């Protein structure tokens, strides 16, 4: 037994000191049969494969039936080909999504299922969109912990094991009431007060840890509120800025659950998707950090309603403030400082508020409603 202990001590010292060449080791903590999921050789290389090796990335999107997943899949399929982008979720997809490209069942809480998907489909890029958003998460904290934290751990391990390039979105919700609010920089105090925000800070830090510890190619953007025309709101605090267009065109009126003066950062989905692809394609040497703010505009419900009125003169907005959502919004940034993203990989938004409103109303057919009203 003394000999065994001596050998264990020597091996431990070797692992702590690393190889004689001074290179960073990328060995993951072993997961042994019976007590863990997988075992990785100590000389494994966890840097993601370059496109020169694979021609086109093989993409998996988790949580694909949420607000952003379908749009991202369509966007990436135009770039990389329909069969190279796989949409996954635990829900049954509608017919039009099912027939638009590969769409499979995937449960991020099932590690074996995730691993089989990655191996069987030769995945090289993974976009992890499975999450319970801010307001929904507060209504079911235990489920939010399971999906947003335990699910993330599975994703990180699978990505590291199979040398994937991993994108995990973060959010303005990762900041809290003690963060600088106008503007909020990339690096500052983060003390969010929602389980959604806490889980996103956890994701940012774990992704950065896996990058430095294991060489995982982790990339992350803090999204503002995302406004999209072809998807339904998903339970977030900024979702009023999506629902207002549905209700304005359908009913000519909208009841807002935030105060009229609540200013929050927002972005049109086309800018969001383009930023996501741009940071994934950015050369590794151009990235000075793993998590970036991105921004386009900031506005209040009152300012958004005034812009809608220019297109639908009979539109009416009323306010019935939800105390939970208002408290969340009051703890979030008023605007984001995204100067690092603009400097490091050339981020630049295209849509401001007037272009956003025109695009959304055109999509939902406001011209028809105005003609009927007249």
From TrEMBL:
InterPro entries: Epimerase_deHydtase, NAD(P)-bd_dom_sf, NAD(P)_epim/dehydratase. It comes from Diceros bicornis minor. GO terms for biological process: L-threonine catabolic process. This is L-threonine 3-dehydrogenase, mitochondrial. SUPFAM superfamilies: NAD(P)-binding Rossmann-fold domains. It catalyses: L-threonine + NAD(+) = (2S)-2-amino-3-oxobutanoate + NADH + H(+). Pathway: Amino-acid degradation; L-threonine degradation via oxydo-reductase pathway; glycine from L-threonine: step 1/2. Belongs to the NAD(P)-dependent epimerase/dehydratase family. It is an enzyme of class 1 (oxidoreductase).
